[in-house]
Each structure stands twice: as structure tokens, then as C-alpha cells.
Specification:
This protein is α/β, with parallel strands linked by helices and 264 residues long. The chain has one domain (3-248): TIM Barrel. It is 35% helix and 16% strand.
């Protein structure tokens, strides 16, 4: 698969009078860096919102200053410490695991309040889960802790949250089995074409936005080239609309959060 194949799929959307909705999430932010600066510049040049998932426990105060004047960057919450609480040999998970649900929510709420203090109105109360896993008992109680959304990986129909609350990512251009390097043009574009085709044909939920997942600290030259060309191509095509983070999660006035941690 190459760029021509992507254009061909988008042309089919245009011929059908449909517009594919995409959104962008970038994970593991903690502090300013050259890689983060390049991400911020790309967002500014393309005019596309990026949901920047920040790890609360490690977030540096200088990150807030780095994001000043960057209207296309919206801060999401990336767990609390990005620590694995899963069982030995099992999948990594921070938003769940062996701990009581109330304890998980109390820790997440502490991270929520720290990000709110650091980033004020730039912070959107959305939990972007480390390792893209949120245990169902935690997911169903996020709203009571003040969250307006949650994000993991794959079709949201597989999760317990309702559309509008859950908005997942679906395309990751990195190969984590080889240390998080670019997976190659064919795999990256093929994944996006597959998601587009599944929505166009009704094989998956047609109205689910397609989420792009990036990790700025891990990007090599191939990753950056892919992202830059993807933004240019999709921004110019009439069958694509990049959503603002506020649209993805239907953000508005925040409800008052209930106390957490009192239930098991």
C-alpha cells in the first residue's frame, strides 16, 4: 500500500458524498523536548488539534509554559504514573489491575487535579489510558470522578462506555516489537485504509472517528515523514475532516465530580 491507495480510498468516500472523521492523540508527554517541539510545530502548521496525553506524576511545570500560545494542543490525562499494576506475565495496565476500583479512581483523581492546576483550561478531563487498557469496573465509574471521556485502542463497541464518552485510537505507525520504530509505509497506510474501508462498507461502526496514535519521543525520520505527508494529503482532500478534541468527546461545561474512593 502507498499514498496512491489512500487517495483512491478517500476518492470512494467523496464519490459517495461522505466525509471521514479523524482525530489525533499523542502519548507519554512529561516535559519539553526537541521531539515535542517538532510535534507542536506540525500541529500548528497543519491546524489540526492534538490530544497530548500527559503523565501527571511526571509532568514538569515547564511543560505548561512550552504549550502556551499553542491553541491546537489539548492536554489529556495519561493515567497517573504510567505504572503497571497488572499481574506478572499478564498485560500491562495502570487503569485497573489487582487494586480496588476505589483506590484506582482516587489515584486518577489526584492526577486529574494536578493537570488542572498545571494547565488550567487547556486540560480536557479525558483519560487516555497507558497501554490503552481501562478495566471495565474503572471505565464505568470515570464519569462520577469528573471525567468527560476515555480513550484506549480499537473499536469502541468492545468497551463499556457510550459513544461520545469513549473515543479510541486505531492507527499506530510504530512497531513496538522492534523497539518503537516506524513500522513502514505499507503497514501504516494499510492500517488507515483498512479502518476507512471498514467504515465505508459497514463492517464496523460507520460513525466512529478514526484515531491516530503517536508517541513523539519515539519518532524516527520515517515516522516524521509519514506524519507530515499524512497531514498534507488529508488536509487537502474533501473527504477528510480532522476533528477538534472538543468535538471528539462532546466537551462542554464540566459537571461537579463526586468524591471517590469510598466504594470498593
Amino acid at each position: 500500500m502507498d499514498w496512491g491507495d489512500l487517495v483512491g480510498e478517500l476518492d470512494l468516500w467523496a464519490e459517495a458524498g461522505r466525509v471521514a472523521e479523524l482525530w489525533w492523540r499523542d502519548d507519554d508527554a512529561v516535559a519539553p523536548s526537541p521531539a515535542l517541539g517538532r510535534l507542536l510545530d506540525l500541529a500548528a502548521a497543519s491546524g489540526i488539534d492534538v490530544g497530548l496525553a500527559v503523565v501527571p506524576a511526571g509532568a514538569a511545570g515547564s511543560l505548561a509554559a512550552e504549550l502556551a500560545g499553542r491553541p491546537h494542543i489539548v492536554v489529556l490525562q495519561h493515567g497517573y504514573r504510567h505504572r503497571n499494576w497488572g499481574p506478572p506475565g499478564g498485560p500491562a495496565v495502570e487503569c485497573g489491575g489487582a487494586r480496588p476500583v476505589g483506590q484506582v479512581l482516587t489515584e486518577l483523581r489526584a492526577g486529574y487535579l494536578r493537570l488542572e492546576r498545571l494547565f488550567a483550561s487547556r486540560f480536557a478531563p479525558v483519560l487516555a489510558a497507558p497501554w490503552n487498557r481501562i478495566d471495565p469496573p474503572v471505565l464505568v465509574r470515570l464519569a462520577e470522578a469528573g471525567y468527560r471521556g476515555a480513550s484506549a485502542f480499537g473499536p469502541r463497541a468492545l468497551m463499556a462506555g457510550a459513544p461520545g464518552f469513549v473515543a479510541n485510537v486505531h492507527i499506530d505507525p510504530l512497531n513496538w516489537r522492534e523497539g518503537g520504530r516506524f513500522a513502514g509505509l505499507g503497514k501504516a497506510i494499510g492500517g488507515l485504509i483498512g479502518e476507512l474501508r471498514a467504515r465505508r462498507t459497514g463492517a464496523t461502526e460507520p460513525g466512529e472517528p478514526i484515531g491516530l496514535l503517536t508517541h513523539h519521543q519515539c519518532h524516527d525520520a520515517g515516522s516524521w515523514d509519514f506524519l507530515e505527508r499524512l497531514q498534507r494529503l488529508t488536509s487537502a482532500h474533501p473527504a477528510v475532516r480532522w476533528l477538534a478534541v472538543s468535538e471528539v468527546f462532546n466537551l462542554g461545561r464540566r459537571p461537579r465530580a463526586a468524591a471517590t474512593g469510598s466504594r470498593p
